[in-house]
Amino acid sequence: VQVGAFIGVASAEPAECELADLLRRADIAMDHARGSRSARPAWFDAGMERALVAHGELEQGVRFALDHDQFVPFFEPQVDLATGEIKGFEVLARWIHPSSGVIAPDRFIPIAEELGLIGRLSDQVIRKALLAAADWDQAISLSVNISPSQLADSWLAQKIVRLLTETGFPAERLVVEVTESSLFADLELARAIVTSLKAQGIRLALDDFGSGFSSLSRLRALPFDLIKIDRSFTAAIQRDRQSAAIISAVTTLARALDVPVTVEGIENAATLDAVLAMGCRTGQGWYFGKPMG
């Protein structure tokens, strides 16, 4: 039996605070030690308490934002790299805060996941995106992201089909993006959901390809229509030969499997030229325009 402990320590002069406050500070320090998996005691400092208060305020803010319809879709263009023609858009969630303005998803998505609200948030954003894009050029596709926790929902396919029915958006114009790492928890459930979506005419994309494990086995096990190469490889393409080799290899593999590839994170002309030389035909990134509402 292996036994361990996390320890939080707080100290104060007798006149500085009440015993209850001192215990609360020690408890905050212990939570900090637990979160960092530290092998040594964590000493309380005021920054820990400020971070805890900020986290609590953010939790309340996310709940309020959901109740008051403050999450909206932004659209990032996906283009034909050779011609510059827009082929589709990826839907990205943004929080329009009444006082802080536009808040990026890296601040609120983890909170929504933690609170079990990511499904509700996703429905809100996808519904708005489908309504906005329903009358666009019928050749333009719309890509939406599904979180790992959503992929554990056996009713996910039915929920997406309901959104399509209620908004009148054509199923064949929708691409559902699933991250490679989200497939590990329950491959059989993921297979059932993917099969249900494809039966409705919805296309499936394997997002962040190459950043997880067993990529080839996932491609063989699930019928993906599109592979998206993770932006971490694209960002390093100019200085890291391994990243360039991975992009080239994935592109060659995808061509052999007759699966289209989209390269994420194209930020400048040099990167565009590099991925074009490797045979990539579709991409997205700030070089073509920042996401806009």
> What best-fitting shape do the alpha-carbon axes yield?
globular
The unreliable regions are none
Q: What is the helix tally?
A: 11
Q: How much of the polypeptide forms β-strand, as a percent range?
A: 15-25%
Q: Can you give the mean pLDDT?
A: 89
Class from helix and strand fractions: alpha/beta
Strand line-up in the sheet with most strands: 3-4-6-7-8-9-10-11
The percent range for helix content is: 40-55%
Oligomer: single chain
Q: Report the count of strand segments.
A: 11
User: What series of H and E elements makes up the topology?
Assistant: EHEHEEEHHEHHEHEHEHHEHE
* Cα-atom radius of gyration: 23 Å
User: Tell me about the biggest sheet?
Assistant: 8 strands, mixed, barrel
Instruction: Measure the end-to-end span.
Output: 55 Å
Question: How would you describe this structure to a colleague?
Answer:
The chain is an alpha/beta fold. It is 46% helix and 20% strand. The protein contains eleven helices and eleven strands. The chain has helices at residues 19-36, 46-67, 105-115, 118-133, 148-151, 156-167, 187-199, 215-221, 231-235, 241-257, 269-277, and strands spanning 8-9, 42-43, 71-80, 86-97, 101-103, 141-146, 174-179, 203-209, 226-229, 261-263, 282-284. It has an eight-stranded mixed beta barrel with strand order 3-4-6-7-8-9-10-11. Helix 2 crosses helix 3 (105-115) and helix 4 runs parallel beside helix 6 (156-167). The model has no long low-confidence stretch (mean pLDDT 89).
